[in-house]
């Protein structure tokens, strides 16, 4: 579990995007210096989605986003990158458009 948490401390990262509730606590403990975005899909039931998003507010440095009908992980990541650029969390052109997906199970 610690090895997976070190990905949150990558100095090249501009932002960390989380799509699972289980990873929020682990990433928040690392206290990364970049914004951490928790993206929750609106395609799930609204009650569950809002619960997960509000759960993200408990942890330091987590910014919850309610995704707009994102059905896949790729859609959720694309949505969060667009919001991060619009809000000024990510400045400049990303060095790579490649995203890495890790299983937290």
Largest sheet: 3 strands, parallel
Give the % helix. 25-40%
User: In total, how many beta strands?
Assistant: 3
| Integer count of domains | 1
Q: What is the fold-level CATH name, i.e. the topology?
A: Pyruvate Kinase, Chain: A, domain 1
The radius of gyration computed from the alpha-carbon positions, rounded to a whole number of angstroms, is 13 Å
Portion in beta strands: 5-15%
Average pLDDT, to the nearest integer? 67
**Global morphology:** globular
InterPro entries: Pyrv_Knase_C_sf (IPR036918)
Protein name: Pyruvate kinase
Question: What secondary-structure arrangement, pairings included, does this model have?
Answer:
Layout: H1 2-5, E1 16-18, H2 21-30, E2 36-41, H3 46-56, E3 62-67, H4 73-87
Parallel strand pairs: 1-2, 2-3
How does this structure look, described?
This protein has one domain (2-7, 15-87): Pyruvate kinase, C-terminal domain (Pyruvate Kinase, Chain: A, domain 1, 3-Layer(aba) Sandwich). It is built from four helices and three strands. The chain has helices at 2-5, 21-30, 46-56, 73-87, and strands spanning 16-18, 36-41, 62-67. It is globular and about 30 Å long. The model is unreliable at 1-7 and 101-105 (pLDDT under 50). InterPro entries: Pyrv_Knase_C_sf (IPR036918). This is Pyruvate kinase.
